[in-house]
Design a protein that fits this description.
Elements (H helix, E strand, L loop, with lengths): L1 H11 L1 H24 L1 H6 L5 H33 L3 H5 L5 H38 L8 H21 L3 H8 L2 H15 L13 H19 L9
């Protein structure tokens, strides 16, 4: 399985996506700093503490990597079915289910690691920015850091699996556009933030969506033997 995943990452040129993720992190950091300085935004969504600031950062990061994951799914799975190039892979003496599972694991692991790394990057960057701008009241303590880190890890874990939900729509239509559009719908559902409150803060929502993503992946892998690639 590891060899298959390495081959998929090499074929995908994963380093180009890592560079794109780094650029996205810088954009998110600039955006969160701009929001914290904008007078109108401060009235609508004041950062009352580091907890709220990190919640907003996690929401922006989550939305970014759900879309990132849909792009990876499109490149690794949907495009190969759409272009029929998957037929070449199916000619090799490799189990179809194992092949698709390796592709989806690449998506899940990339999303998980990138989500956590991005939250750390943007969070540390915003903390340094706040030392000079003083836009967030209160002090940053180790208890806040530990709580925020645990929240980020749990959130990233759920995000990495729920990001597989667009796979269902992409496979159904064998369409990259359907995959990405459905990811935007998922983002709209889980990234609504009203005065620091999000649906994602209700523990049942991320768990339920993560389980739905796992179910979509499982059904896609299980039914791969019956998928008509020549359709």
């Amino acid at each position: 399985m590891l060899k298959l995943m390495k081959l998929e990452m090499r074929k995908l040129r994963i380093w180009s996506y890592m560079r794109a993720a780094l650029i996205a992190n810088v954009v998110i950091l600039v955006l969160i700093c701009s929001i914290s300085l904008d007078a109108e935004m401060k009235q609508k969504m004041p950062f009352t503490g580091y907890d709220m600031a990190f919640t907003v950062i996690d929401t922006l990061v989550r939305g970014t990597y759900i879309v990132f994951a849909s792009v990876l799914i499109s490149r690794l799975v949907i495009d190969e079915f759409r272009k029929k190039s998957i037929m070449v892979l199916f000619m090799y003496p490799i189990n179809r289910k194992k092949l698709i599972a390796a592709k989806l694991l690449v998506v899940v692991l990339f999303t998980l690691i990138a989500d956590i790394a991005s939250n750390l990057f943007v969070g540390v960057g915003f903390y340094i920015f706040n030392l000079f701008a003083s836009v967030v009241p209160g002090t940053f303590t180790w208890s806040v850091a530990a709580k925020s880190l645990l929240t980020v890890v749990m959130s990233a874990l759920a995000t990495s699996f729920l990001s597989l939900i667009p796979l269902y729509f992409g496979m159904r239509k064998q369409s990259s556009a359907a995959t990405i559009v459905s990811s935007l719908i998922v983002v709209g559902l889980v990234c609504q933030n009203v005065e620091g409150f999000t649906l994602y803060s209700l523990i049942a929502v991320p768990i339920g969506l993560a389980l739905l993503g796992v179910a979509v992946a499982y059904l896609s892998i299980r039914n791969i033997e019956h998928v008509d690639v020549l359709k």
